[in-house]
Design a protein that fits this description.
Elements lengths: L1 H24 L6 H8 L6 H4 L5 H30 L1
Helix pairs in contact: 1-4
Length: about 80
């Protein structure tokens, strides 16, 4: 049982470090809605249509995926001992 706990702890540690690095790599979001209201910009621009392909979008998707992995790994580490004993 100790081996599974060690492996799970290492996985959680690596995923946590990856999430921290990914969050630090993302740019700080400004208040886009306020800027759009003042300048009259809309989401129909080229950037608005290709927003899912940008670096920021990829970082956000990757961060979300690592968050899900962290959640599942934490649940697994806490629930597996209940079924093994």
């Amino acid at each position: 049982m100790e081996t599974l706990e060690i492996i799970g702890g290492v996985v959680i540690l690596i995923v946590c470090l990856a999430i921290i690095v990914l969050c630090l790599m993302q740019e700080q979001k400004s208040q886009d809605s306020m800027t759009a209201a003042l300048t009259g910009a809309s989401a129909e621009s080229f950037y608005g249509k290709n927003e899912g392909r940008t670096r920021e979008a990829m970082l956000a998707k990757t961060t979300r995926a690592f968050g899900i992995i962290l959640f599942v790994a934490t649940l697994a580490i806490n629930l597996v001992p209940l079924f093994i004993d």
